[in-house]
Design a protein that fits this description.
It is built from 11 helices and 11 strands. By secondary structure, the chain is of the alpha/beta class. The chain has 2 domains: about 5-115 and about 270-304, Rossmann fold (3-Layer(aba) Sandwich); about 125-260, Isopropylmalate Dehydrogenase, CATH 3.40.718. The strands form 2 sheets. A 6-stranded mixed β-sheet has the order 8-7-9-6-5-10, with helices on both faces. α2 crosses α11, α4 runs parallel beside α5 (about 100-110) and α6 (about 150-165) crosses α11. The protein is elongated.
Length: about 300
Protein backbone atom coordinates (compact mmCIF):
# COMPACT_ATOMS: atom_id res chain seq x y z
CA UNK A 1 0.00 0.00 0.00
CA UNK A 2 1.37 3.40 -0.99
CA UNK A 3 1.36 5.68 2.07
CA UNK A 4 2.50 8.76 0.14
CA UNK A 5 3.14 9.94 -3.41
CA UNK A 6 6.82 9.02 -3.34
CA UNK A 7 5.88 5.41 -2.65
CA UNK A 8 3.20 5.56 -5.33
CA UNK A 9 5.65 6.94 -7.88
CA UNK A 10 8.37 4.43 -7.01
CA UNK A 11 5.89 1.55 -7.32
CA UNK A 12 5.13 2.50 -10.91
CA UNK A 13 8.45 0.99 -11.94
CA UNK A 14 6.72 -2.39 -11.80
CA UNK A 15 4.20 -1.37 -14.49
CA UNK A 16 4.52 -0.88 -18.22
CA UNK A 17 4.95 2.72 -19.34
CA UNK A 18 1.56 4.25 -20.04
CA UNK A 19 0.64 6.58 -22.92
CA UNK A 20 -1.00 9.98 -22.30
CA UNK A 21 -2.92 11.94 -24.92
CA UNK A 22 -2.62 15.64 -24.04
CA UNK A 23 -5.23 18.03 -25.45
CA UNK A 24 -3.85 21.48 -26.40
CA UNK A 25 -0.43 20.61 -25.02
CA UNK A 26 1.18 24.07 -25.38
CA UNK A 27 1.17 24.63 -21.61
CA UNK A 28 4.46 24.97 -19.72
CA UNK A 29 3.39 23.25 -16.48
CA UNK A 30 1.73 20.39 -18.34
CA UNK A 31 4.77 19.83 -20.57
CA UNK A 32 7.09 19.93 -17.56
CA UNK A 33 4.94 17.30 -15.84
CA UNK A 34 4.95 15.19 -19.02
CA UNK A 35 8.75 15.52 -19.17
CA UNK A 36 9.11 14.31 -15.56
CA UNK A 37 6.69 11.44 -16.16
CA UNK A 38 8.71 10.34 -19.20
CA UNK A 39 12.04 10.60 -17.35
CA UNK A 40 10.65 8.48 -14.51
CA UNK A 41 9.23 6.00 -17.06
CA UNK A 42 5.71 6.49 -15.72
CA UNK A 43 4.18 7.57 -19.00
CA UNK A 44 5.01 8.74 -22.50
CA UNK A 45 2.84 11.32 -24.23
CA UNK A 46 1.24 12.19 -27.54
CA UNK A 47 1.04 15.99 -27.70
CA UNK A 48 -1.91 17.44 -29.61
CA UNK A 49 -2.09 21.18 -30.27
CA UNK A 50 -0.12 24.02 -31.84
CA UNK A 51 3.07 22.20 -32.86
CA UNK A 52 5.17 25.38 -33.09
CA UNK A 53 4.19 26.49 -29.59
CA UNK A 54 4.65 22.99 -28.17
CA UNK A 55 8.17 22.76 -29.62
CA UNK A 56 9.04 26.27 -28.43
CA UNK A 57 7.97 25.60 -24.84
CA UNK A 58 9.54 22.15 -24.93
CA UNK A 59 12.88 23.63 -25.98
CA UNK A 60 12.71 26.09 -23.07
CA UNK A 61 12.23 23.14 -20.73
CA UNK A 62 15.12 21.18 -22.23
CA UNK A 63 12.87 18.52 -23.73
CA UNK A 64 14.05 16.47 -26.70
CA UNK A 65 11.00 16.98 -28.88
CA UNK A 66 12.14 14.29 -31.31
CA UNK A 67 11.15 11.79 -28.60
CA UNK A 68 7.50 12.86 -28.66
CA UNK A 69 4.74 12.34 -31.16
CA UNK A 70 3.20 15.73 -31.93
CA UNK A 71 -0.11 16.17 -33.75
CA UNK A 72 -0.43 19.70 -35.10
CA UNK A 73 -3.93 21.12 -34.56
CA UNK A 74 -4.31 24.81 -33.74
CA UNK A 75 -8.07 24.79 -33.18
CA UNK A 76 -8.58 23.88 -29.50
CA UNK A 77 -11.91 22.11 -30.03
CA UNK A 78 -10.51 19.95 -32.82
CA UNK A 79 -7.33 19.33 -30.80
CA UNK A 80 -9.37 18.07 -27.86
CA UNK A 81 -11.37 15.74 -30.11
CA UNK A 82 -8.24 14.37 -31.77
CA UNK A 83 -6.61 13.80 -28.38
CA UNK A 84 -9.59 12.09 -26.74
CA UNK A 85 -10.07 9.87 -29.80
CA UNK A 86 -6.59 8.45 -29.18
CA UNK A 87 -7.81 7.05 -25.85
CA UNK A 88 -11.16 6.05 -27.33
CA UNK A 89 -9.36 4.07 -30.05
CA UNK A 90 -6.86 2.45 -27.66
CA UNK A 91 -3.81 4.35 -28.95
CA UNK A 92 -3.36 5.96 -25.52
CA UNK A 93 -4.58 5.01 -22.03
CA UNK A 94 -4.84 8.38 -20.26
CA UNK A 95 -6.46 11.66 -21.35
CA UNK A 96 -5.01 14.92 -19.98
CA UNK A 97 -6.15 18.53 -20.12
CA UNK A 98 -3.74 21.15 -21.45
CA UNK A 99 -4.30 24.81 -22.29
CA UNK A 100 -8.05 24.85 -22.93
CA UNK A 101 -11.19 25.68 -20.95
CA UNK A 102 -12.52 22.89 -18.74
CA UNK A 103 -15.90 23.11 -20.48
CA UNK A 104 -14.33 22.39 -23.89
CA UNK A 105 -12.25 19.57 -22.43
CA UNK A 106 -15.29 17.97 -20.80
CA UNK A 107 -17.32 18.23 -24.01
CA UNK A 108 -14.65 16.12 -25.68
CA UNK A 109 -14.81 13.56 -22.85
CA UNK A 110 -18.59 13.33 -23.35
CA UNK A 111 -18.52 13.34 -27.14
CA UNK A 112 -20.80 10.56 -28.41
CA UNK A 113 -18.53 9.47 -31.25
CA UNK A 114 -14.97 9.70 -29.94
CA UNK A 115 -15.37 10.44 -26.21
CA UNK A 116 -15.01 8.32 -23.10
CA UNK A 117 -18.58 8.04 -21.83
CA UNK A 118 -19.68 4.87 -20.09
CA UNK A 119 -23.31 5.77 -19.50
CA UNK A 120 -22.60 6.32 -15.81
CA UNK A 121 -22.14 9.66 -14.03
CA UNK A 122 -18.69 11.21 -13.90
CA UNK A 123 -17.07 12.10 -10.59
CA UNK A 124 -13.85 13.69 -9.36
CA UNK A 125 -11.45 12.00 -6.94
CA UNK A 126 -8.74 13.94 -5.12
CA UNK A 127 -5.96 12.13 -3.25
CA UNK A 128 -4.11 13.90 -0.44
CA UNK A 129 -0.84 13.22 1.33
CA UNK A 130 -1.21 15.10 4.61
CA UNK A 131 1.12 15.63 7.59
CA UNK A 132 0.10 13.54 10.59
CA UNK A 133 -1.55 10.81 8.52
CA UNK A 134 0.07 7.43 7.87
CA UNK A 135 -1.95 6.90 4.71
CA UNK A 136 -3.27 8.64 1.62
CA UNK A 137 -6.73 10.19 1.93
CA UNK A 138 -9.23 9.96 -0.95
CA UNK A 139 -11.82 12.75 -1.27
CA UNK A 140 -14.89 12.81 -3.51
CA UNK A 141 -16.41 14.92 -4.98
CA UNK A 142 -14.69 18.28 -4.61
CA UNK A 143 -14.84 19.63 -8.17
CA UNK A 144 -17.35 18.07 -10.52
CA UNK A 145 -20.70 16.71 -9.31
CA UNK A 146 -22.77 19.51 -7.69
CA UNK A 147 -25.63 17.71 -5.91
CA UNK A 148 -25.19 13.93 -6.13
CA UNK A 149 -28.24 11.70 -5.73
CA UNK A 150 -28.19 8.51 -3.68
CA UNK A 151 -27.42 6.49 -6.82
CA UNK A 152 -24.68 8.98 -7.77
CA UNK A 153 -23.11 8.55 -4.34
CA UNK A 154 -23.12 4.78 -4.77
CA UNK A 155 -21.24 5.23 -8.07
CA UNK A 156 -18.85 7.69 -6.41
CA UNK A 157 -18.01 5.14 -3.73
CA UNK A 158 -17.37 2.46 -6.37
CA UNK A 159 -15.13 4.79 -8.38
CA UNK A 160 -13.14 5.93 -5.36
CA UNK A 161 -12.69 2.38 -4.12
CA UNK A 162 -11.25 1.58 -7.56
CA UNK A 163 -8.72 4.41 -7.16
CA UNK A 164 -7.88 3.37 -3.59
CA UNK A 165 -7.40 -0.26 -4.64
CA UNK A 166 -5.14 0.87 -7.49
CA UNK A 167 -3.02 2.59 -4.82
CA UNK A 168 -2.82 -0.64 -2.83
CA UNK A 169 -5.56 -0.02 -0.25
CA UNK A 170 -7.54 -3.18 0.50
CA UNK A 171 -11.12 -2.90 1.80
CA UNK A 172 -10.92 0.90 2.32
CA UNK A 173 -13.05 2.58 4.98
CA UNK A 174 -15.56 5.08 3.59
CA UNK A 175 -16.93 7.89 5.76
CA UNK A 176 -20.16 9.37 4.41
CA UNK A 177 -19.86 12.87 5.81
CA UNK A 178 -22.48 15.18 7.26
CA UNK A 179 -22.56 17.92 9.89
CA UNK A 180 -23.49 15.38 12.54
CA UNK A 181 -23.34 11.65 13.12
CA UNK A 182 -27.03 10.92 13.62
CA UNK A 183 -29.91 10.74 11.15
CA UNK A 184 -32.01 13.88 10.95
CA UNK A 185 -34.99 13.84 8.59
CA UNK A 186 -34.58 17.57 7.97
CA UNK A 187 -31.07 16.90 6.62
CA UNK A 188 -31.41 14.70 3.50
CA UNK A 189 -27.68 13.96 3.32
CA UNK A 190 -27.93 12.08 6.66
CA UNK A 191 -30.71 9.92 5.20
CA UNK A 192 -28.52 9.14 2.18
CA UNK A 193 -25.61 8.31 4.47
CA UNK A 194 -27.68 5.86 6.50
CA UNK A 195 -29.03 4.25 3.32
CA UNK A 196 -25.52 3.83 1.86
CA UNK A 197 -24.44 2.17 5.11
CA UNK A 198 -27.37 -0.25 4.84
CA UNK A 199 -26.50 -0.97 1.20
CA UNK A 200 -22.96 -1.82 2.27
CA UNK A 201 -24.23 -4.11 5.05
CA UNK A 202 -26.48 -5.85 2.49
CA UNK A 203 -23.61 -6.34 0.02
CA UNK A 204 -25.00 -3.91 -2.56
CA UNK A 205 -21.84 -1.82 -2.09
CA UNK A 206 -18.81 -4.06 -1.80
CA UNK A 207 -15.01 -4.05 -1.48
CA UNK A 208 -15.16 -1.46 1.31
CA UNK A 209 -16.59 -0.58 4.72
CA UNK A 210 -19.16 2.23 4.61
CA UNK A 211 -20.31 4.20 7.65
CA UNK A 212 -22.46 7.30 7.90
CA UNK A 213 -23.58 9.81 8.67
CA UNK A 214 -20.30 10.82 10.28
CA UNK A 215 -18.87 14.18 11.18
CA UNK A 216 -15.43 14.77 9.76
CA UNK A 217 -13.67 14.82 13.14
CA UNK A 218 -15.03 11.40 14.10
CA UNK A 219 -14.12 10.01 10.68
CA UNK A 220 -10.48 11.08 10.94
CA UNK A 221 -9.53 11.32 14.62
CA UNK A 222 -9.96 8.56 17.21
CA UNK A 223 -9.61 11.13 20.00
CA UNK A 224 -12.71 12.93 18.73
CA UNK A 225 -14.58 9.64 18.37
CA UNK A 226 -13.67 8.71 21.93
CA UNK A 227 -14.75 12.09 23.30
CA UNK A 228 -18.11 11.77 21.53
CA UNK A 229 -18.62 8.14 22.54
CA UNK A 230 -18.41 7.00 18.93
CA UNK A 231 -15.59 4.46 19.04
CA UNK A 232 -18.10 1.77 18.10
CA UNK A 233 -18.58 3.33 14.66
CA UNK A 234 -17.05 1.20 11.88
CA UNK A 235 -14.90 4.00 10.48
CA UNK A 236 -14.13 5.91 13.68
CA UNK A 237 -10.81 7.74 13.31
CA UNK A 238 -9.66 5.53 10.45
CA UNK A 239 -11.34 6.70 7.24
CA UNK A 240 -9.54 6.21 3.92
CA UNK A 241 -12.29 7.77 1.77
CA UNK A 242 -14.29 10.91 2.56
CA UNK A 243 -17.58 11.16 0.65
CA UNK A 244 -18.94 14.71 0.79
CA UNK A 245 -22.68 15.51 0.69
CA UNK A 246 -22.28 18.05 -2.12
CA UNK A 247 -19.69 20.02 -4.08
CA UNK A 248 -19.82 22.98 -1.69
CA UNK A 249 -18.67 20.95 1.31
CA UNK A 250 -16.05 19.10 -0.73
CA UNK A 251 -14.65 22.18 -2.45
CA UNK A 252 -14.42 24.21 0.76
CA UNK A 253 -12.50 21.42 2.50
CA UNK A 254 -10.28 20.89 -0.55
CA UNK A 255 -9.31 24.56 -0.87
CA UNK A 256 -8.82 24.93 2.88
CA UNK A 257 -6.36 22.05 2.86
CA UNK A 258 -4.52 23.19 -0.28
CA UNK A 259 -4.07 26.77 0.89
CA UNK A 260 -3.59 26.26 4.62
CA UNK A 261 -1.78 22.93 5.06
CA UNK A 262 1.60 21.77 3.70
CA UNK A 263 0.43 18.86 1.58
CA UNK A 264 0.67 17.05 -1.73
CA UNK A 265 -2.23 15.99 -3.89
CA UNK A 266 -3.31 14.58 -7.21
CA UNK A 267 -6.67 14.45 -8.99
CA UNK A 268 -8.44 12.40 -11.62
CA UNK A 269 -11.88 12.25 -13.19
CA UNK A 270 -13.60 8.87 -12.88
CA UNK A 271 -16.56 7.13 -14.49
CA UNK A 272 -14.88 7.24 -17.90
CA UNK A 273 -13.50 4.52 -20.20
CA UNK A 274 -9.97 5.59 -19.30
CA UNK A 275 -8.46 7.78 -16.56
CA UNK A 276 -8.91 11.51 -17.21
CA UNK A 277 -6.60 14.14 -15.73
CA UNK A 278 -8.56 17.34 -15.17
CA UNK A 279 -6.24 19.68 -13.28
CA UNK A 280 -6.48 23.45 -12.95
CA UNK A 281 -4.09 25.87 -14.61
CA UNK A 282 -3.20 27.06 -11.11
CA UNK A 283 -2.12 23.56 -10.03
CA UNK A 284 1.60 23.10 -9.56
CA UNK A 285 3.79 20.80 -11.64
CA UNK A 286 3.95 18.47 -8.61
CA UNK A 287 0.14 18.16 -8.58
CA UNK A 288 0.14 17.36 -12.29
CA UNK A 289 2.87 14.72 -11.87
CA UNK A 290 0.98 13.18 -8.94
CA UNK A 291 -2.17 13.16 -11.06
CA UNK A 292 -0.33 11.35 -13.85
CA UNK A 293 0.86 8.79 -11.29
CA UNK A 294 -2.71 8.25 -10.08
CA UNK A 295 -3.96 7.90 -13.64
CA UNK A 296 -1.19 5.40 -14.38
CA UNK A 297 -2.03 3.09 -11.47
CA UNK A 298 -5.74 3.31 -12.31
CA UNK A 299 -4.99 2.53 -15.97
CA UNK A 300 -2.99 -0.50 -14.86
CA UNK A 301 -5.91 -1.69 -12.72
CA UNK A 302 -8.36 -1.17 -15.59
CA UNK A 303 -6.10 -3.18 -17.91
CA UNK A 304 -6.04 -6.10 -15.48
Amino acid sequence: MAKNFDELLSGLGNYSTKKIAVAVAQDKAVLEAVKIAKERKIADAILVGDADEIKKIGAELGMNMDEYEIIDEKDITEASLKAVSLVHDGKAEIYMKGLLPSSTFLKSVLNKEVGLRTGKPLSHVCVFELPGFDRLLFLTDVAFMPYPTLEDKKCMIDYTVDVAEACGVTNPKVAVLAALETVNEKMPCTLDAAELTKMNDAGEISRCVVDGPLSMDIALYREAAEEKGALDRKVAGDADILLFPDIHAGNLVYKSIVHMVPCRNGNILTGTKGPVILTSRSDSVDVKVNSIALAAVVAEKMKK
